[in-house]
Design brief:
220 residues, alpha+beta, five-stranded mixed sheet, 5 helices, 11 strands
Length: 220
């Protein structure tokens, strides 16, 4: 098993050099293909215009920080009707366009941000030799797509007091999916209408008279 296993499988990359500088491992990488297709017209080209090096952060190896030095070639597009004169080759399995971290490192940061949040996640990342800021973790979490929300079939309804006698909130619990809606403050009349439209199978632990009436009307 050679050092090529350090790279994503199927990405078409060639690992040319592995260099250890202090506590940082540098991987020198290039694409194996002779050319690349133009992103505008799709015509393949092997006419190299220029090249440059991208420095990309990656997952740690043997408790050491890792950077990938990716050699990127810029090609000339030979299609006369194409509006793009030059274009750079891309490695979508390794890194997104303009990104400074690999896709697998980004995915790791997203999980850490979801589980721990900003400051705790940043401290854990630094301990795992993949340092990042708390704002980066929060920005990655905010960029994630919203998970799909299905209409509940078993709904629990209860109330709690922000301030007894003054401010009340209603909490909704999806008992069958073991997930919970965030508590919100709303007039009772609005919750009654929402319960009528949301009711599907049964409502658990509904003690207030108004909620019982809304659930009864929802069954009709």
């Amino acid at each position: 098993m050679g050092p090529q296993v350090l790279l994503p499988q199927g990405a078409g990359l060639v690992l040319e050099q592995v260099e250890l500088c202090g506590q940082v491992v540098h991987l020198s990488v290039r694409l194996a293909a002779l050319g690349a297709p133009c992103p505008t017209c799709g015509r393949s080209s092997e006419a190299v215009h220029s090249s440059y090096c991208r420095i990309i952060a990656d997952l740690p190896i043997a408790d050491r920080q890792v950077t990938v030095q990716l050699l990127v070639r810029r090609f000339r597009c030979r299609e006369q009707a194409c509006s793009r004169r030059t274009f750079a080759e891309q490695v979508p399995l390794l890194v997104d366009r303009y990104a400074r971290r690999t896709r697998r490192l980004r995915s790791d940061f997203e999980v850490i941000g979801l589980m721990l949040g900003g400051r705790p996640g940043s401290r854990l990342s630094a301990r795992q030799k993949k340092p990042t800021s708390r704002m980066t973790l929060l920005r990655l979490v905010r960029a994630l797509p919203e998970p799909p929300v299905e209409t509940p079939s078993v709904l629990g309804v209860d109330e709690f007091a922000f301030r007894r006698g003054r401010h009340y909130g209603t909490i909704l619990i999806l008992w069958n999916q073991k997930s919970r809606f965030s508590p919100g403050v709303c007039p009772h009349a609005l919750w009654i209408g929402m319960l009528r439209s949301w009711w599907r199978t049964c409502v658990c632990w509904s003690q207030a008279g108004q909620r019982d009436e809304a659930c009864r009307l929802g069954q009709l």
